Amino acid sequence: QVQLVESGGGLVQAGGSLRLSCAASGRMFSSYTMGWFRQAPGKEREFVAGISWSGGSTDYGDSVKGRFTISRDKAKNMVSLQMNSLKPEDTAVYYCAAGARPFTTVVVTTTSGYNYWGQGTQVTVSS
Questions:
Q1: What's the rounded Cα separation, in Å, for the pair 17 and 110?
Q2: How many CB atoms lie within 10 A of CB 127?
Q3: If I label 33, which of 2, 17, 58, 112 is the partner at 20 to 30 A Cα–Cα?
Q4: Which residues contact 114 (CB under 8 A, 6 or more apart)?
């Protein structure tokens, strides 16, 4: 059974940092793009960051470029999101997602490109 489990969310003051982790099991996730999305109340789910199966390509949403960094540990089947210089507008539920096709080099930035999702972890940034 495919499973993605996020951890690391919490409450932080503006300007602070958090590191989210996603543990994957049940599939050869080392062959798939992994991504992070977020969804704030009343808003659509938006792309935050993604990393290709090889780790050689990454992409970020415009609002987080220069502040967030995605990485993956293929041996541990884990993906992480380092979030620095957090802002109140970063407050959302953050979801880890696994891509639908293996060995793709282009990072897909839409939800339709991912077919497995974690349960989400809440990130709250206070001003």
A1: 26
A2: 9
A3: 17
A4: 33, 35, 37, 97, 98, 99, 100, 108
Size of the chain, expressed as the number of residues it contains: 127
Alpha-carbon distance 42 to 38, whole Å? 12
Q: Cβ distance 46 to 61 under 8 Å?
A: yes
Rounded-to-integer distance, Cα 74 and Cα 84, Å = 23
Residues 20/80, Cβ–Cβ less than 8 Å: yes
Termini Cα distance of the chain: 40
Give residue-wise pLDDT tens across range 79-118.
999 999 999 999 999 999 998 888 988 899 999 999 999 9
Write the CB contacts of 50 (distance below 8 Å, at least 6 apart in sequence): 33, 34, 35, 36, 58, 59, 70, 107, 108, 109
Q: Looking at residue 52, what DSSP letter applies?
A: -
Instruction: Report the distance separating Cα 1 and Cα 63, nearest Å.
Output: 34
Q: In the structure encoding, which two tokens stand for residue 66, read together? A: 């220069």
- Share of residues in the chain with pLDDT > 70 (%): 99
